[in-house]
């Protein structure tokens, strides 16, 4: 089963003063192999592989190789971008029958994210700077998808923090920052 999702990344455990601005977004595309575990084939285990791209606009800017952070003014555009592979493992239930293709579905499970790229881009009217972000290479999230036919809501709640910081650094307030995802997911085939 091919899936595509669009959503809004939500920052959890934010330090005081951190805000999201503009329209942050996330997009996923992948494949899940559905393996039925009962005779009626409406209960299954799904295992897949996909790509996930996130863009978060925020007022938190990292400087000096992420050892220090500052809150920037609203006239600067500060963007965090990341590209991850995702590995979903789900328990999948649906109300389908051999003749009914419009059915309810409830999919719940874990999604592993492996970071391929993470960067920060800061733009002013005159200049643009791009720096790498130090993120956890592997993160887990709990995911729930529910819907009918084409339209399905999805929510992924992170287990691990987004950044890879030593807990004793100056960025202790940022070290527990997590990114959740709320959006729509479409299943094709």
Task: Describe the protein's architecture and organization.
With 189 residues, the chain is mostly beta strands. Helix content is 0%, strand content 63%. It has an eight-stranded antiparallel beta barrel.
Number of strands: 11
Percent strand equals over 45%
Query: SSE order, as H and E?
Result: EEEEEEEEEEE
Order of strands across the main sheet: 1-2-3-6-7-9-10-11
Low-pLDDT stretches are none
Question: Which structural class do you get from the secondary structure elements?
Answer: mainly beta
Alpha-carbon distance between the termini? 6 Å
The rounded Rg comes to 19 Å
Q: Mean of the pLDDT scores? A: 88
Large-scale geometry: elongated
DSSP helix fraction:
under 10%
Number of helices: 0
Largest sheet: 8 strands, antiparallel, barrel
Quick gist of this model?
It is built from no helices and 11 strands. The protein is mostly beta strands and 189 residues long. A hairpin with a 4-residue loop joins strand 4 and strand 5.
């Amino acid at each position: 089963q091919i899936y595509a999702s669009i959503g809004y990344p939500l920052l959890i455990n934010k330090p005081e003063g951190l805000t999201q601005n503009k329209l942050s977004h996330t997009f996923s595309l992948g494949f899940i192999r559905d393996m039925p575990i009962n005779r009626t084939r409406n209960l299954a285990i799904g295992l897949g592989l996909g790509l996930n791209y996130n863009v978060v606009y925020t007022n938190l800017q990292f400087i000096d190789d992420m050892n220090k952070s500052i809150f920037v003014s609203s006239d600067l555009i500060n963007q965090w971008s990341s590209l991850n592979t995702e590995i979903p493992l789900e328990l999948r239930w649906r109300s389908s029958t051999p003749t009914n293709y419009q059915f309810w579905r409830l999919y719940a499970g874990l999604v592993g994210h492996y970071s391929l790229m993470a960067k920060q881009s800061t733009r002013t009217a005159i200049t643009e700077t791009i720096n790498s972000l130090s993120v956890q290479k592997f993160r887990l999230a709990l995911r729930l998808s529910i819907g009918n036919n084409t339209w399905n809501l999805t929510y992924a709640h992170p287990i691990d923090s987004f950044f890879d910081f030593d807990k004793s650094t100056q960025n202790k307030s940022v070290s527990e920052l997590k990114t959740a995802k709320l959006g729509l997911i479409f299943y094709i085939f």
